[in-house]
Amino acid sequence: MANLVAIVYPDETTAAKAMETLKQLQKEYLISLEDACYVIKDTQGKVHLHQLVSTAGSGAAGGAFWGLLIGILFFVPVIGLAIGLGLGALMGKFADFGIDDKFIKELTAEMKPGNSALFIMFRQATADKVVPELAQYGGTILRTTLSNETEAKLQAELAKGGQAPSAS
Q: Is residue 165 in a domain?
C-alpha cells in the first residue's frame, strides 16, 4: 500500500528543491516513489503543476516500440513507428496514474498565492535518512495517509526546518 504526504512551503521555489532531493534519494534507493509532483501557486493565484514523470513521453516511447514492431510485421516500419509514436504520446497525455490531478487541484485551492507544495506517493522509505533530507526545507503538512503518530513526528521534524539540536 502506498502512502501519500502533501507538504506546503511558504515560497514558490522550495517544493522544486525538495523534489530534486527526492529524485536523488530515489537514485540512492532510500525511497521507493510511486509518484511525486510539486505545485506552485504564483502571486496571481495561478497554479502550475510539475510532474515527476511525463506520461506523454513514456507513452510515446511505448507507442514507438509497438508501432515499429507492428510496422516490421507488415513491412512498413517507418510508418508503424510514426503512428505508434503519435498514438503513444496521445494516450500517455491522457493517462493518469499515481496522484490524482483533481485531488491535487482541490488541495492547492487552500494554498495562498506565492506558496508551493510537494505531493509524494511512496511505497517505502528509509525514514531515518529521508526525513532529515526533507526536513531541511521546513514546511507544513497539508494532508497525509500516515498514522497520526508518524504524521506528528514528521511535522515536528519539518517544523525544526532541518536545524541540528544545540549541544548543551
A: no
